[in-house]
Every structure is written in C-alpha cells, then in structure tokens.
Amino acid sequence: METKAIELFFTNATFYGLVISTLSSWTNLFFLQSKFWSFVSKAISVFSTSSIVLLLVTRWSYGKYFPLSNLYESILFLSAILLICQQLAEIKLSTRLIRCLNLPLVLCLYWFGVSGLPKEMRAITGLAPSLQSNWLMMHVSVMMVSYGTLILGSLLSLLFLLLNIILIKKENPSSKNSFYASEQNQDLQVINNQQPLQNSLLKVIDTWSYRLIGLGFPFLTLGIISGAVWANEAWGAYWSWDPKESWALITWLTFAIYLHARLIKGWTGEKTATIGGIGFIIIWICYLGVNFLGKGLHSYGWIS
Description:
- By secondary structure, the protein is an all-alpha fold.
- It contains nine helices and no strands.
- 71% of the residues lie in helices and 0% in strands.
- The longest helix is centred in the last third of the chain and has 37 residues, at 199-235.
C-alpha cells in the first residue's frame, strides 16, 4: 500500500507539474514576459522531469523489472526522455519556444497514458513470458531514446517551418537571400511583435534539428537491429513484417532520406525541415498509431 501511495504521489505530482509549467511557459511567452515567469516555468519543468524519473524508479524498485513492459510504461519513459532532451536543447538554443512546444506535447502524451489507458495496463503485474529476456532493457530503452530525440528533432523542423512562414510574411521576399546573415542569437518574441524575427535563431533551430535527428538515427538503427536479434530468439525469425516492425522500417527510411539530403545533397533549411516535419507524423504513427490498428507480434503493447 505504501508503494502504491508513493506511485500515486509521483503520478499526480508529474501531471500537475506539467500543467503548471505548460501554462506558465505560455503565459511567459504571450503575456508576462519577465525573468521571474521564465524561471518559474523552467523550475517546474525540472520538477516534473524529476518526478517522472522517480515514478519510473519506484515502479522499477517495486516490480523488480525495468519499467518498459507495456505501452503505459513506455509512455512514462518517452515523456521523461522528451523532457530531458528539451532542457538540454534549451541550454543550447537559448529560447523559450522549444519549451512552449514540447511541454504541451508531453502533457498530452502523459495524460493519455495516465487517463486513457486501462487500469490493468497501469498496474505492476510483472513481466509477460515473452519479455523475460535480457534484450528488454537493451531493445526497448534504445528505441525510446531514439523516439525521444527524433521527435524533438522533427519538432524543431516544424518550428523552423512555422517561423520561416512568419519571416516571409513579415519581411520582403528578397530578405530570404540573407537568411543566415545575422550572427546575433536572440530570443523570439514574434507573436507580440516586440522585436523582429532573428535569422540566426532559425539557423540554430535548423542546426539543432539536424543534430538531434543525427543522434536519434543511430539509436533507431541499433534498436531495430537488437529487436531483430531478440525476435529471432523469441519467435524464430529476424523479421516478420509485424505492423510495428513495418512502421519502424518506414520511420528509419524517412530519417535516412533526411540525413542523405543533408550529408550528400547538401540540403539545409526549408527542404530538410519539410522532410523532418513528415518524419514527425510518421514516428507518431509508428509509436502510437499502429496500436489502434490491430494485433501483431508486439501484442503486449497494443490497446485492443
């Protein structure tokens, strides 16, 4: 009972922390642009991250297995990865925009996990026989890390496209020729029209979108390979064209095209951001979408 109470405390603390940090971050962006509200949003975001990590540790300690056995625990893990990556990206980007975009995403994901999934899936019941393998931590954790970094990287691609549209509307079309001219990195306050859009911020967002996707792609590759080896041990075949496997391959190909376009073709900016934006949709289909389509070999992670 004590463990359940601790788990409930961290579950609620994380949810309310995400709500408050999301509201305060948007309040800071739209209405009260002060260092105080920025600090409040950042501090509560750190608190939410710590709380969800402690929630995972509690489940790990109580269940005696790495907490990635089903969709609920993977949502907790992915939420933690997204929050950690967000805070690291904020240090480099020096902008509040990534926090304003990522926090609502994490809040919706976490709310779906806590309120949208059956209670049976949220209970700590031990590992299913198919998951009692040393490959569990290796395969699933690597896949979750790849999802987190790729989602945040592709989210930055969408942010790039959005801000680029605003730039085109606010400035003369000829200004696009000096897209990367400015070297001064300043925080955006476009919505309130307090200062012009800084081209250098777009360059930084484009660069860090590429870096995050470049980091997530090897993890995705390693996750697919380790999953194939595990599948051969468990089911006698490396690849079975299970829906989750098929969409993992589609996701891999999408981000492979992104990296090929940047490294071989030399594309940057709007072209690669468009591919990254497509990748944002595809990776969510791979992670959550296929869970609503039917059953497969990854049945332990399906809703139905």
